[in-house]
Amino acid sequence: MPTQIAPPFADRSELLVGSVIDASTALLAEQQHDIVRFAMGAPSEDLMPIAQLDEAFTGSRSGRYDYGETEGEPRLRAQIMELTSQRGIETSDERLLVTTGGMQGLDLAFKLFVDPGDLVIVEAPTYSNGNATALSYGADLLPAPVDEDGLIVEALPELVARTGKTPRAIYTIPNFQNPTGVTLSLRRRELLIELAERWGAMIIDDDPYGRLRFEGEDLPDLAGIAPKHPLLFQVRTLSKMIAPGLRTGWIDVDPAVRALAVNAKQAMDTCSSVPVQNAVLNYLTSGHFETHVARLKPIYRERKAAMLAAVERHLGGLATTTDPEGGFFLWLTLRGDAAGLDTEALFPAALRDGVAYIPGPAFTVDGSMRNALRLCFATSSPARIDVGVSRLASTIKRAIAAGEATRA
Ligand SMILES: Cc1ncc(COP(=O)(O)O)c(C=O)c1O
């Protein structure tokens, strides 16, 4: 075999950085011992409506295994319009395109709006798959800090001025942000729209968790503040509310943007799986969906409370956390004697101790936030959460005793 012949990779292939988060699925599958899984952002199997989904698949009897419309199955689009209007958002059929999960929505957004070298504002920390997608199109990422009210929008003009560029896009996760769980305040939502208009930048509004509010009051979506705004690219998915394996989401965008997104999707996968779309449609029209989402909320509220209590019990004085009002995640920052620890370096020991998380640097452009980590509270029962946090505390305390906090 002529092993000396190297495949002629495109320069672009160097921009494909992969995903620490997604890679953790395979890493965890290889482990033989008991691990409390705080790493992936997925609903646990016991919370997915599996029997009803099985019914939706076998009962759909659509008999349709042909190619479908790129825009998505028309009856599913009608159902998505219904879901959108329940959120108080105006939309219309010519704005919608069914996607293969939220990830495809992000890919379409960056593909349509980012040329190599273009400035894209991203939250720091943020969902790293979003960063990876932007990078794959050559984006110049500008990390912007986040506090308990989400992206610090007031800081953007100065950060942008320092780059000497005008942003092409602003990637934001306004509700129960991944990884921090924080929510963008109303004032900042309004300001974000003003700034996008000033710069002529697209707002890529990625909201997988917005319907999973278990505390507090809903804030208007960006599209509620600026209905049908041409600079708003809304990325939605059913992965977190129903099940991620369905790979079903949609974008809600200006019709002129949709026309190009359709062309782009035709050069990717022609259409999303027709039998899956029909099963999803069947599930959405079965009446089980609303009941399911309503059932999830108190469960996630209880799990978040269990995680906060476990952090207080086992890591009191060594960590602070955010306190999300919905979604899946909280963000833990080490402090006190643990402040000098590196959560990436700590990860193999934590895994051996039986707990998995995603280290902070996985969510940053520059590998910073080394003393922070993301915990998903959605996947484990309160009892398991306590076990997991207590294992994490043992790993951390052992590392402190070994002097790792001061060596970093
Ligand atoms: C903020 C955010 N956007 C997009 C996605 C991707 O969604 P999907 O699994 O539907 O592709 C996720 C999943 O973790 C997410 O957290």
Automatic annotation (TrEMBL):
State which Enzyme Commission number(s) the record gives.
2.6.1.-
The prosthetic group or cofactor this protein requires is:
pyridoxal 5'-phosphate
Domain Aminotransferase class I/classII large stretches: 35-392
Mention one GO molecular function: pyridoxal phosphate binding
Give the keywords, sorted: Aminotransferase, Pyridoxal phosphate, Transferase
GO biological process annotations for this chain's record? alpha-amino acid metabolic process
Q: What is the uppermost EC class here?
A: transferase
Q: Which Pfam families match?
A: Aminotran_1_2
The record's listing under PANTHER family reads: AMINOTRANSFERASE, KYNURENINE_ALPHA-AMINOADIPATE AMINOTRANSFERASE, MITOCHONDRIAL
Name of this protein? 2-aminoadipate transaminase
Q: Which organism is it from?
A: Leucobacter aridicollis
